[in-house]
Each structure stands twice: as structure tokens, then as C-alpha cells.
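Two quick folds needed for the group meeting slides. Do the first one here.
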Amino acid sequence: MIGVRPSGRRLVGPVVVVLGGLLLAACSGPGNASSPEPDADASPSATSGTATDGEWDPHTWVPTVTITPVAMTEAEKVAWRTQWLADTAEQAGLQDPPQVALVRWTEGNADHDEATAGCLTDAGFTASVGSDRGVDLDVPEAQVDAFQLAMYVCESKYTLDPVYYQEWTTDQLNLIFDYWTQFYLPCLQAHGVPVDLGAVPSKAAWVAAFHTSRRLDWWPDTVLQTTPASIGRPAREACSMYPPDDVFYGQ
């Protein structure tokens, strides 16, 4: 699956679209006790063993950082939405996008994915929530333009609360690196995915460079690109790449 990396904002799940057999994608375990906890600046150590899908629940992971929620006024959210919809229409090639009233802000990725999938289904497309964030779609090539319009309308109706689009803070970067090294990578290993721990940068270097031109191009799920589908697909479904929204964005 081809995806677009988060820029340091929302933990974006892909909208996966099948066009005439061609798969395209575009953005729109146990807890710590089961695996060794790495030093703050170290790469993860290897873990071994097997696990069933039910054992790898991201809610069992104990957060290493407490995140303070972003505060925005309703006026700030509305202004953000206006500009964001204009940018979205331009990127989708919509010359005269319709004015669509906001039905409600969606709160978190799961809520947004469910609302988007339901809205697209109501518009006549075959849509479902993906196994780990995002929406899976089957769009005939002849309906791509109609899909772009429907997607715009659905995003207008169920816009994700802008607090989920803000740049990731240093605390969030530290937290997600810990989650990846303490939970996600061990989960992949437990499901048979070969993980080169030597390729994992130190947390200090990764966090320090993230919002700079020297950003390290490392993402933990790249190992799935070279893993046979018979192993990678079940692992992707069993191992959530991101912690729960209330953990990553704060209560």
C-alpha cells in the first residue's frame, strides 16, 4: 500500500482506493511488562515470541508522557475549516465546490473514519473503515471525479476537529517514539515481521530533527513493504501503528 507520511499533524489513516484492480492510497499487544523498556536515547532491543491478535491491545500500553490537549476557540476552528476546505477543493481539482454546512465536528480518528465511510456509502460508494485507521474504498475509474466531489462533501459535513491537525509537539514526538519502540515494533516481531533494530535511530536524534530540514526519514512501518503479504497483512491488522487518540492528543 502506498501512503503519505504524516507531516507532524493528524495521525492520518489512508483512504485506500481500488481503481480497476490498481490499488492506490492517498491521505485525506501486551503492555511494557512484556518487552524491555529502552533507554530514553536508545534504539529498541530485540524481542521474541509469538502472540495472538487479542494480546496486542494498544490501550494496554502505559504512556510515557502525559499530553496536554490543544485549546482552540470555536471561531478559530471555523476559520481554520474555511481555509482547509478551500485548500482541499483546490487539491481535488474542484473548480466550483458546493457550500456544505458542517453537520458536526468529528472527535478523533475513529469517529472521523466511521462518519466518512458512512457518508461515502450514502453517496453510493462502497466504503468501509480500514483495519488500522482510514477508509477503504472501491471506486470504478469512471467515477473518480464523482468520488472527489463526494469526498469533499463528506469532509465538509464531518470535518475532523482542527486540534487533530496541529503540528506534533515535542511531548507527542517523544510519546509516539516510545510507543513505536515499546509496543508497535515488538508487536510486528511477534507476528513474524523481520525488524532491523539497527536501522532505528535514537529517540533524541529523531525528535530533534523532526521539524527541521534534517528530518530523519524513518518510519516503523516501512518494514512491511518488504514483508510477504501472508505475514505483513495479518501483522498490519493486529498491530496498531498509533496509540489511542486520548493518549496521543490528551484527554
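Then this one, please, same format:
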Amino acid sequence: MSTGVGKLNKQLNERRLGLPLVMSVASAIILSACTSAPQSEVTQPQPPAPETSAPTTPQVTAPPTETPDVSVANQSNPGETLDIKACLGQDKYTIVDFSSEFCPSCRRISPVLHDLAKSRSDIAVRTLDINRTGVQGIDWDSPLAKQYDIHSIPQFKIFDTNGKLMAEGGDAKRQVMDWIHQSGGNM
């Protein structure tokens, strides 16, 4: 582990936050998850992931667009419950990004997701702010975080062009990373 990642991990642990490594040391800095408890306390078994097929997007990417399909889907009602399907991009792969302004990794990945949507006209990004208005720090108790069982962020769900869930959790992060690398983006 590099010194920078080690220092970041120590700082997060001092704040009683964990830092799970996502894919590699390089992507860990961007996609590391801010968690609500130290890693040693996050040992609850996770329910099995729903049957999802591997994303089947072709290597050839859609043309770039000047106006990327990117928005904060719950800007008027942050942290409150929301029907994700109501905010999906029409006829596009939609990356739903659960986020908080208090999450450094979320703030770092946001412009990368924007660039991805700009480089691929077949991808939409919907950021969902898990923080309720006025809550300082990551709002793990928000109705939205509870509705979607969010315990670490950034966290992604990917929906296909027909609105069917394609991937979530680690599978979704890997797919997002693949798309970023295919489009020439850096992490």
C-alpha cells in the first residue's frame, strides 16, 4: 500500500470510517468507499445479489455529446425516498451514483462520471444525494440510504436501455471502471 493511501486509510480509521480497497491501489483512491463503521465491524452477511447478466455493451462506444445526460436526480428532495426507475435515462445505460457531498471519493468520481457521459451518448448518470438537508457528515440514517441499504459510497447501480437492473455493488463498479477506461478516461 502506498504512503498516500496508508495515510488516507489511517485518517479515515481515526474518524471511525473504513476504506475497502476496490480494485487496485490506483482506483482505490477514487472509488474507495466511505463506510459507516470500521471495516472490522462491517461483517454482516450481505443478501445475495439479484440475478444480473453481465453488461453487454460493445467495445465500440457511442459518439460523444456536447450535452451529457447527467443530473442530481433528487436535488429538490435530497436524502428522501425515491423510485430510481422514475429517473432513468431514456434509451440509455444509466449509472445511478449514490453519493454525499461529505464523501471525498464521491467528489472525486463525479467529474469522471460527467466526462464518461460526455464521451458516450448512450450513457446517462443520475446522482442520488443520500444526505438530507442540514445533516452534516454522511447521512447513513437518511430514508434514501435505508431504502436502498446503502452502507458505503460511492455505490453504483447500472440499468440497461430498457430500465432493467444490469449490475450493482462491485460488479457495477467494475463496469463503470471498464467504461471509463474504454472512453480514455483516467482514474
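Slide caption for protein two: The chain is about 30% helix and 15% strand.
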